[in-house]
Sequence to fold (322 residues):
Amino acid sequence: MTRLASLAALAGALVAVVLGFLTFGAQATAAPDGVPVAVAGPPDLAQRIAAHGGGQLAWTVTTPAEARRLLEDKKVYGVLELGSPATVVTSGAVNPAGAQVAQQALTAGAAALGGPPKQEVLHPASAAGRTAPLAASALAWIGALVAGLALTQLAKRTGRTVGAGARLLQVVGAGVLVTAAVAGFFALWDSALPLDAGVLGFVFLAATAFAALQAGLLRLLGLRAMAVLGPLYLVAPAVAGQVPELLNPAYRTLLWSWTPFRFSAEGLRSLLQGVPDAPDVTTGLWVLGALLAAGLLVVLWPSAREQAEPHLADRVVEVGVH
Fold:
């Protein structure tokens, strides 16, 4: 019994380490490091401004038109346009964490030139618009996960084998119903949020891709897959809600670089704010499409037992006259 108690204590400590790493650690170590911003104006003055900021900011000196194009493409998080007065330009289509840091830094820089700058926001986002992309991604993940887990458990309790048709129905059904739930929340939170084919189609792709990936892992590993799928849910608010330039390099490499939530959240953010041509929309479509294809391959691939099932013609017993 002493040994079991020690193992239980060790398991609790390991869970605490994992939770601390995936959640609070990312927030506790957040700090600006190379946040991309642009400055547009007279070259000499722009170059002098770009020389300040240390490693916290990564400046691009360019023209006003090019700076705004970079902001539309989300390659910079803010623009300082030099003038009398200067103008700080941000975008509601940019991750709120990155936009806030850029706005604060650029406002301080403009104030040092001789007065508070004007503030301009492209594609302004409401509080719901800033929250909705990450919320939809997290809801799609947890909703699809519960659906896959429920099918696995029901099949186990009834002793029935889950066939390819049932698995496919669960994946598609979860995608449809979770998309409907997310659309309902969007309408409840802010009736101005667009619910067009582009937004709903992207949410459906994300939910179906998550469902297929989870169903595939549950098929391969059973309930043991929860040791992977459960903690991944914690990555959504802690890591995917940040821009990489605010994360500790360890979190940036080990978690942010591959988490599927960032692809769904940032692509959906662009669609909700009316920037469908932003590069992260295309990237999100490719990544989520690849996850969907890989998940469906595992979900629908016939098992050895299914391959061994005799065809109807093979079950015919020939009766001969002896």
Observations:
- The two ends are 69 Å apart (CA to CA).
